[in-house]
Amino acid sequence: MDFGPRAGKASHTAAGERRVCPRCRSKALALQRRHVSPARLGEPLTTEYYECEACDAAWQYSPAQERWKPVST
Predict the structure, then answer these.
(1) In degrees, to the nearest 5, what angle opens at C-alpha 16 toward C-alphas 9 and 20?
(2) Cα dihedral sign, 58-60-61-65
């Protein structure tokens, strides 16, 4: 299940800022970690991993594509 881009969304999240969960729509997504691919592999890609404190869902977010993907736990 992919969720497409939303207009007007920032491509980065400040520390401590919460995002809206694509599943339960509550503002309870907390950033767990951020991964940036090494430059030697080409253009650096950033992937962020979030967990929802309301519905216990885990999500992977790609700022470059503005896509959310569920993560199996």
Answers:
(1) 40
(2) negative
Spans of all domains in the chain: 29-70
Q: Is residue 45 a contact partner of residue 64, using CB atoms and an 8 Å limit?
A: yes
Residue whose entry in the numeric block shows the structure tokens 């650096």: 44
Per-residue pLDDT of 3-39, as tens digits, reads: 444 433 444 555 568 999 999 999 999 999 999 999 9
In this prediction the pTM is: 0.72
Neighbours of 70 (CB within 10 A): 14
Greatest CA span in the chain, whole angstroms? 38
Amino acid identity at 11: S
Helices (H), the chain: none
Overall size of the chain counted in residues: 73
